[in-house]
Amino acid sequence: MLEQNLYEKVGGEEAIAKVVDYFYNELVLKDETVNQFFEGVNMEKQKSHQTKFISFALGGPKNYTGKSMAKAHEGMNLQPEHFNTIATHLHDALAHFGVPESDIDTALTRVASLRDDILYK
After folding, report:
1. Do 94 and 107 touch, CB atoms closer than 8 A?
2. CA atoms within 13 A on the CB side of 45
3. Where are the domains of the chain?
4. Fewer CB within 10 Å, N side or C side of the chain?
5. What is the CA radius of gyration of the chain?
6. 6-18 burial code (b ≥16 CB/10 A, e <16)
7. 84 CB contacts (<8 Å, ≥6 apart)?
8. Packed helices 12-22 and 43-57: angle between N→C axes, nearest 10 degrees
9. Each residue of 36-64: pLDDT tens digit?
């Protein structure tokens, strides 16, 4: 029997869309340390891009067609504390939907690999 990839384990794109919705609505947009980065952003478009990106990052289909991470974060001058806050919120959103800690760690390791493409741009 083939082992499920992380994308399949968490429930595919539909489940990831719920995680992303919770991530933004309940965590990120209520956090004054990072919510300013989303002022004036079309959040439906942002959530759609994020859902596709996270789906791909977790081993799902390559439906993400947005900008590169470096391009998407250009001019934001994100600092390590911003990155860490977002990573913590992603952890908490995944945990909220019952994703096991070992799988969350795998997901966050993949996100951490993008750190250099996101910070100080």
Report:
1. yes
2. 7
3. 12-35+42-118
4. N
5. 14
6. bbebbeebebbbb
7. none
8. 130
9. 999 999 999 999 999 988 888 888 887 77
Contact present, 46 and 54 (Cβ < 8 Å): no
Closest of 22, 78, 76 to residue 50, by C-alpha: 22
Cα(118)–Cα(7) distance, integer angstroms: 23
Under DSSP, the state recorded for 38 is G
Residue 16: pLDDT over 90: yes
- List, for residues 105-118, the tens digit of each pLDDT value: 999 998 999 999 99
Report the alpha-carbon angle 75-118-7, nearest 5.
135
Residue type, 110: R
12-35+42-118: CATH topology is Globin-like (1.10.490)
Angle at 87 between CA 116 and CA 8, to 5 degrees: 100
DSSP secondary structure, 59-76, as one string: T------S--HHHHTTT-
